[in-house]
Write a structure and sequence with these properties.
Elements lengths: L21 E2 L3 E7 L7 E4 L2 E2 L10 E4 L5 H4 L2 E3 L5 E4 L10 E9 L7 E11 L1 H10 L1
Parallel strand pairs: 2-9
Antiparallel strand pairs: 1-4, 3-7, 5-8, 6-7, 8-9
The structure holds calcium ion.
Calcium ion binds next to loops.
Length: 134
C-alpha cells in the first residue's frame, strides 16, 4: 500500500468564551417621576459581548445581595435588561435607590460584568423646577 502524501486530521474547534460581557456604562442614572405607575418600564441596562452564540448570550440580574427594601420596587428583565417599577414611589419617603446589577454570558467558564444603577425619584416640585430650566 502506498503512503498517502497527506493525512486528514479532524480538528474539532470548540468555541471559546474569550470575552467577558461589558456594560456600556459604569453607572446608570435613571430619573423617575414619583407619579410613575407600577409596571412602567423606567430604564434599560445593556452590555456587549464580543463572542458569539452561547458565549455571547447575556442574562441580566439585580445583585442578589440587594436589600429587600429595594428589590420590592424594581425588577430587571433577564433577557432585555429593561428595568420596571413594581411599586409606586414616594419622593418624600425616599429620593434615591442605588443597587448593583450583574450581566453574565452562557459560556464555559461563565464570564460577567457588574454596573451600578442609581434611581432618582422626582417629586412634583422637582419636575416644575426642571421645566423652568428648559
Ligand atoms: Ca463571552
Amino acid at each position: 500500500m502506498e503512503h498517502s502524501s497527506f493525512t486528514i486530521v479532524n480538528i474539532h474547534i470548540q468555541d471559546k468564551n474569550s470575552y467577558a460581557p461589558q456594560f456600556e456604562r459604569d453607572i446608570y442614572v435613571i430619573q423617575v417621576a414619583e407619579s410613575a405607575k407600577s409596571g412602567a418600564v423606567i430604564g434599560k441596562i445593556n452590555a456587549n459581548d464580543l463572542d458569539s452564540g452561547e458565549n455571547a448570550r447575556l442574562t441580566y440580574l439585580m445583585d442578589p445581595e440587594t436589600e429587600n427594601e429595594i428589590k420590592k420596587y424594581f425588577s430587571i428583565d433577564q433577557t432585555s435588561g429593561s428595568i420596571s417599577l413594581l411599586l409606586e414611589l414616594d419622593n418624600e419617603q425616599k429620593k434615591y435607590y442605588v443597587f448593583s446589577v450583574i450581566c453574565y454570558d452562557h459560556g464555559i467558564p461563565q464570564k460577567k460584568d457588574t454596573s451600578v444603577v442609581e434611581i432618582r425619584v422626582l417629586g412634583e416640585s422637582d419636575i416644575v423646577i426642571m421645566n423652568e430650566l428648559e
